[in-house]
């Protein structure tokens, strides 16, 4: 849970994507759903002007992953979003100017603040991959067997566009548009609740 | 009770149910049909057209007769096949399609009128008088049409959907399906085994055949246990695979809770989209009957179904114990039924076999070379007429089984226009090789219906399917089984003068087919439509081939020459609820909420759907009884003081890169690359065909960093178009695009006191007119260090700004502005006031940029730069478009209290109001509280030269016209002084 008061850089009080002052979390049997309000996001794109053959920079010590892959190290993570383009994640950096931090790591790249462009829901299973994959089967047209840890994709979920990151066998992040947070939470929670029945 | 011994029902679990209000008892494992039969109930419904008494004919999803309304209240569902309805305690069902009690249906009078209801009846009868059609015929027909009734209440159940992926989908869990599943499962392949039945085994559960010299049930149980132990196999019972779609996708409906009295927390049904690398079609076969005179009485059923009821459900087809049962067959299969019934202790009169050389398989009477030529019994069979060598005699029977051969279930194999092929030996259509790719028919569905051959064929199909995807599967040890004798004659119907039913559900007889032939409706497609054969809820599963055979006989052609029936999805009826996928009401589709949504909600705002967005439309205050009061107040507050409005919904595209300016020059019609850092410019985008596409502002925040603003409606489209140009047209440009619409909450602060209000929240930033003039932009901080973006732009025509902060701070910023501006009279305003303000100012919005308009029409033709090329620029100068003289004007009704409706057409005063004299149209209209008059915007021929003219605005839809004066589109501050102050 984020303590906004101590992290505040302004006297304005932020709200989470779901409209609360604290991140929402709920359990459904073996599955738990948590709004990750503290996740800082910024996109990083290579510039064309970069020398040909130049390798993608490392940011925060992270090697930038290949097509359809996600990596993580400590509080930071990166996932591929397009050609020469990645989303960089930073746990606990939802309130600060994470894009500025990233820009200083990769001054020759285009960096765009994305933290509040998205809402991140972290789904965890207390009973291995089974419940998570059963949930996926109700939500997205992906073969869970071909979507193991470290995989990322962008896909449709209940008519919404989302990034899915398989953080581990038993953990999945669903990152959707912030303004659709309520509808996305509804879709995820209804599907999880139905698995309980 | 006519319950037999044995069966796969659980006699320790009795279940009570009602049919037409009368109580009965069945057992777990029963279907409604088997339980009714076991209770001696033969009469289950009425036919569609003639209202003939009908009983159950089949034992599976092909059932045409025993259709009931299941459940009560909101869950009442018509046309439920009693053969597929699993019995549960408290089940309530009613027969359908009758007026009055089932056994005394008043509409049975239709049967007496049958000579008038021949094939093509509707087409021939309701031709005249023409005026009668709409008022009399159609309502009457509609009232009589349809089977069953709807509750007209909202469906209380939940429906779900999902996606599955596998190496091998096996459709059908009979002998072939189980052998395939075991073969593939042991090979480690990801397998889905689906069957519409609630138990595994298919026909194996309905036959007396042994496997490994033991009851088949023992083998089924062992296979089930093994498959359940394999993590790579998913067994889906109560799941109907109803269609084959492109790219190996199969549609399936799982009836999750249909076997329960109420679903409780469960969903009722789930729609699955199964993506399978390969599939085995092991859907079995459907028995066909032999039409003969009066063959539709309750008690007449398929011989295979009769055998199934006896073996699996221990239900006898007769009303009273001891009533005789006869079998009418054209092959060996009918004899199996006789043998099984005798083994169950039933009273078998004998077997009537159309083949002269037929031999009995056991100890029963054989009528070789004989046919059934008539039946008696008003509400149920009491006797049949057997004719042999021209001699007829009547025999008392309580039931008659009819065995006319088996049709492989080729349906799914013909979904990609795979045309089945005729097999002369089987006397049936079998799947062809040009069916859906990757779908391999096996077992009875492929014409291999003997138990031993079905088992072997299922295994073969699995090995073949998996070998195509590089999975090696080995042969498995199959149980010892035999193939029953299956000789049959090509005997399709018993000729005669009386009506002999081919399609039970839609009341199509051999006579109807003969009439269709006589009227030249010979092609099978015409036959179907002329007679309605196969067009009922059962889709003619028990009748299509028989009808084709009758037509072939009449035309003197072979069956394949006569035609081939192919099938479309769905295999059986699929409810719209499950296709809809579940959510209803507010959750029917996703909603986008602005960052200040919850704040606006608390304030009592009325919301309006704008695409997916929910936007605050206006903020009513206590005492305001009409929306106009709120909107007028909000508009005047902006013009006189300061108003604030959430404008987050406008699209925002972050454009970076060394070539960002060049890129923007190409997508905008006007010059954008020359924009100075810290400045904003209004821009127009054209479509490739030269018409207006979108408008908005473009801000240059830093040297190589721009922010493009789009209209709310076009946010996604413009971003997509920009990405297309970036990736496909000018990939050489160094430019990076990111949509940031959601990332930033943007609030418009508008009105003469807006600067004063903003000065109270910005951190050490000079927002004086000199320090931050009109069309300026800046990245700055507000409220003690929060990063923000400030734009000095105005949609309202007043001194105005838009301030953007990370979305999570949007609500707090709104609250802070309300708090800081209390003494300034700060007023929140919604989309209605926003619209009024921009119409008063003559600013274009979606109504003016409707895809048919040009920059010239907006009076902005000069914005399409001649100094550079851009999307649509050349096409905007083409003939036809460049000469368009319609121009945006303001319109003020002569009577200011009369509203000019948007959409009204404009005409020169005194001219006829016709297409040829049309002078333009009204795009937007509102009441201007500032002018205390209705006003409007519109496009008018040569409008820029007609200021002061009085013209007619016609609204032919409502039959209204009014006179209006053509004025400048800028009703407020045409010089633009206010927004520059």
Automatic annotation (TrEMBL), chain A:
Domain of life of the source: Bacteria
InterPro entries registered for this protein in UniProt: TrmE/GcvT-like
Name assigned to this protein: Sarcosine oxidase subunit gamma
Automatic annotation (TrEMBL), chain B:
One GO biological process term: tetrahydrofolate metabolic process
Family classification: Belongs to the GcvT family.
GO molecular function: sarcosine oxidase activity
Domain SoxA A3: 498-581
Domain Aminomethyltransferase C-terminal: 886-973
Classification via InterPro entries: 2Fe-2S-bd_N, FAD/NAD-bd_sf, FAD/NAD-binding_dom, GcvT/YgfZ/DmdA, GcvT/YgfZ_C, GcvT_C, GCVT_N, Sarcosine_oxidase_asu
Domain FAD/NAD(P)-binding: 167-293
Key words of the record: Oxidoreductase
Protein name: Sarcosine oxidase subunit alpha
GCVT N-terminal domain segment(s): 597-868
Pfam families: Fer2_4 (PF13510), GCV_T (PF01571), GCV_T_C (PF08669), Pyr_redox_2 (PF07992), SO_alpha_A3 (PF17806)
Keyword Repressor assigned: no
Species of origin: Celeribacter neptunius
């Amino acid at each position: 849970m984020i303590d906004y008061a101590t992290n505040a850089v302004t006297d304005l009080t932020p709200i989470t994507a779901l409209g609360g002052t604290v991140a929402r979390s709920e359990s459904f049997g073996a599955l738990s759903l948590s709004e990750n309000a503290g996740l800082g996001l910024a996109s990083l794109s290579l510039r064309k002007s970069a020398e040909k053959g130049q390798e993608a920079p490392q940011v925060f010590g992270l090697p930038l992953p290949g097509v359809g892959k996600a990596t993580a190290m400590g509080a930071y993570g990166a996932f591929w979003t397009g050609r020469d383009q990645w989303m960089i994640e930073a746990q606990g950096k939802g309130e600060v100017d994470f894009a500025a931090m990233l820009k200083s790591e990769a001054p020759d790249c285009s960096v765009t603040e994305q933290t509040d462009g998205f809402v991140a829901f972290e789904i965890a299973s207390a009973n291995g991959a089974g419940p998570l994959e059963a949930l996926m089967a109700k939500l997205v047209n992906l073969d869970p067997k071909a979507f193991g840890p470290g995989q990322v994709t962008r896909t449709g979920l209940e008519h919404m566009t989302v990034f899915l990151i398989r953080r581990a066998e038993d953990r999945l992040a669903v990152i959707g548009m912030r303004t659709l947070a309520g509808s996305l939470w509804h879709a995820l929670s209804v599907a999880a609740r139905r698995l309980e029945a | 009770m006519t319950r037999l011994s044995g069966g796969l029902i659980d006699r320790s679990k009795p279940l009570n149910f009602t049919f037409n209000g009368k109580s009965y008892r069945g057992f777990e494992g029963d279907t409604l049909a088997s339980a009714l039969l076991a209770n001696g109930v033969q009469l289950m419904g009425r036919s569609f057209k003639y209202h003939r008494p009908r009983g159950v004919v089949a034992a599976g999803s092909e059932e045409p007769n025993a259709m009931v309304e299941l459940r009560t209240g909101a869950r009442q569902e018509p046309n439920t096949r009693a053969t597929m309805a699993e019995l549960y305690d408290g089940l309530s069902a009613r027969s359908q399609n009758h007026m009055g009690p089932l056994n005394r249906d008043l509409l049975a009078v239709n049967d007496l009128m049958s000579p008038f209801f021949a094939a093509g009846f509707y087409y021939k009868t309701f031709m005249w008088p023409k005026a009668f059609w709409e008022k009399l015929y159609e309502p009457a027909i509609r009232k009589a049409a349809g089977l069953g009734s709807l509750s007209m209440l909202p469906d209380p159940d939940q429906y779900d959907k999902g996606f599955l992926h596998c190496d091998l989908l096996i459709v059908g869990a009979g002998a072939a399906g189980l052998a395939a599943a075991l073969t593939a499962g042991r090979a480690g392949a990801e397998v889905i085994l689906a069957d519409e039945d609630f138990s595994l085994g298919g026909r194996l559960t309905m036959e007396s055949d042994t496997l490994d010299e033991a009851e088949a049930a023992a083998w089924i149980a062992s296979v089930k246990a093994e498959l359940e132990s394999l993590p790579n196999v998913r067994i889906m019972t109560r799941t109907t695979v109803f269609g084959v779609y492109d790219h190996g996708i199969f549609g399936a409906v799982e009836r999750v809770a249909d076997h329960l009295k109420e679903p409780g927390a469960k969903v009722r049904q789930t729609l699955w989209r199964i993506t399978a690398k390969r599939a085995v079609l092991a859907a079995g076969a459907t028995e066909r009957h032999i039409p003969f005179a009066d063959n539709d009485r309750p008690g007449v059923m398929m011989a295979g179904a009769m055998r199934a009821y006896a073996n699996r459900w221990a239900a006898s087809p007769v009303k009273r114990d001891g009533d005789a049962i006869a079998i009418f067959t054209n092959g060996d299969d009918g004899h199996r039924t006789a043998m099984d019934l005798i083994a169950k202790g039933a009273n078998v009169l004998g077997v009537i076999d159309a083949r002269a050389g037929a031999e009995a398989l056991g100890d029963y009477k054989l009528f070789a070379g004989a046919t059934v030529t008539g039946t008696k019994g008003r509400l149920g069979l009491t006797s049949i007429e057997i004719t042999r060598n021209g001699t007829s005699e009547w025999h008392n029977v309580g039931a008659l089984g009819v065995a006319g051969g088996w049709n492989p279930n080729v349906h799914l194999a013909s979904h990609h226009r795979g045309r089945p092929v005729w097999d002369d030996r089987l006397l049936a259509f079998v799947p062809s090789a040009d069916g859906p790719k990757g779908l391999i028919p096996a077992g009875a569905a492929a014409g291999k219906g003997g138990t031993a051959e079905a088992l072997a064929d299922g295994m073969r199909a699995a090995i073949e399917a998996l070998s195509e995807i590089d999975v090696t599967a080995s042969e498995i040890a199959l149980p010892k089984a035999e193939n029953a004798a299956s000789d049959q004659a090509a005997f399709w119907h018993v000729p005669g003068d009386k009506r002999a039913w081919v399609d039970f559900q839609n009341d199509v007889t051999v006579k109807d087919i003969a009439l269709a032939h006589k009227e030249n409706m010979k092609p099978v497609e015409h036959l179907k439509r002329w007679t309605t054969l196969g067009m009922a809820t059962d889709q003619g599963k028990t009748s299509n081939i028989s009808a084709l055979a009758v037509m072939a006989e009449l035309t003197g052609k072979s069956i394949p020459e006569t035609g081939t029936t192919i099938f479309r999805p769905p295999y059986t009826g699929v409810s719209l609820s499950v296709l809809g996928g579940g959510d209803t009401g507010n959750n029917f589709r996703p909603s986008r909420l602005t960052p200040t949504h919850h704040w606006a909600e608390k304030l009592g705002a009325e919301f309006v759907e704008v695409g997916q967005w929910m936007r605050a439309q206006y903020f009513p205050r206590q005492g305001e009884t009409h929306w106009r009061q709120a909107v007028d107040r909000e508009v005047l507050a902006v013009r006189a003081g300061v108003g604030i409005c959430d404008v987050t919904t406008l699209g925002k595209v972050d454009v970076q890169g060394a070539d960002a300016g060049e890129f923007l020059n190409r997508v905008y019609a006007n010059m954008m690359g020359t924009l100075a850092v810290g400045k904003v410019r209004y821009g127009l985008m054209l479509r490739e065909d030269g018409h207006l596409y979108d408008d908005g502002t473009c801000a240059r925040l830093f040297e190589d960093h721009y922010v493009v603003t789009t209209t709310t409606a076009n946010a996604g489209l413009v971003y997509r178009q920009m990405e297309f140009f970036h990736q496909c047209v000018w990939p050489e440009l160094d430019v990076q695009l990111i949509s940031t619409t959601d990332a930033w909450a943007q609030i418009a602060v508008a009105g003469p006191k807006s600067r004063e209000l903003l000065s109270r929240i910005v951190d050490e930033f000079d927002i004086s007119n000199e320090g931050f003039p009109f069309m300026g932009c800046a990245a700055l901080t507000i409220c003690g260090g929060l990063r923000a973006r400030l734009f000095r732009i105005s949609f309202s025509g007043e001194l105005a700004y838009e301030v953007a902060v990370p979305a999570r701070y949007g609500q707090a910023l709104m609250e802070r502005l309300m708090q800081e501006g209390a003494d300034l009279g700060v007023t929140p305003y919604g989309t209605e006031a926003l619209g009024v303000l921009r119409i008063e100012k003559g600013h274009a919005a979606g109504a003016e940029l409707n895809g048919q308009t040009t920059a010239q029409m907006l009076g902005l033709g000069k914005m399409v730069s001649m100094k550079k090329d851009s999307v649509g620029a050349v096409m905007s100068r083409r003939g036809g478009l460049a000469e368009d003289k319609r121009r945006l004007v303001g319109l003020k009704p002569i009577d200011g209290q009369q509203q000019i409706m948007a959409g009204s057409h404009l005409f020169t005063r005194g001219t006829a109001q016709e297409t040829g004299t049309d002078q333009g149209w009204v795009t937007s209209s509102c009441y201007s509280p500032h002018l205390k008059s209705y006003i409007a915007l519109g496009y008018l021929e040569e409008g820029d030269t007609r200021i002061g003219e009085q013209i007619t605005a016609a609204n032919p839809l409502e039959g209204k016209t009014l006179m209006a004066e053509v004025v400048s589109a800028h009703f407020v501050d045409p010089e633009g002084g206010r927004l520059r102050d």
